[in-house]
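Now for today's protein:

——
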Amino acid sequence: MERIPVGAIFLPKFGAKLNSIAFSDKDISRAVTRITHEILEKNKGAENLTLVGIRTRGVTLAKRIKKKINDIEGIKIDLGILDITLYRDDLATGKQNPIIEKTSIPFPLEGKQVVLIDDVLFTGRTIRAAIDALIDFGRPATIQLGVLIDRGHRELPIRADYVGKNIPTSKTSRVQVLLQEDDGKDEVCIIEDVTKENL
């Protein structure tokens, strides 16, 4: 039988992944409720408010916020769906194989307080693309941003107005948002690749 040295430290094999749960289903529910109240407070109600969800899970979150606004204010506000694939700034590199999904904004944006909703804010490039896409549909009075998770590492001067949780991460880690409607459960995981570089 092989003897194990006293004080030996066991590390995962190279290439293994470590997962940690950063947000539970109750955490997500509380964050969505808080974001909803902050949106209503900042915009003094929902009279001139429009939500636009960024595909895919941004749309799911926007639908949840819309329902809560309806429950609180008794108003059904417009909700748009935005696919930003063609506005990405990395298409020209040839590294992407874009799958274009439907964008649906069947209402005027002029003069509206538009709140973009996404699941994770990272470099800011997705949001820049989303703003470019929105402007093609009209000129809102304001464009605000709500995200479930802000993980930092911004590459553009973009800041969220409403944040469910700030989660410090390494740039090589991945934040995975799972939502009941899309994935069968509500959960936010941090996935770390255990490589030579970060051991």
Q: What stands out?
A: The radius of gyration is 20 Å. Helices lie at 25-42, 57-73, 125-135, 180-183. Residues 32 and 71 are 13 Å apart (CA to CA).
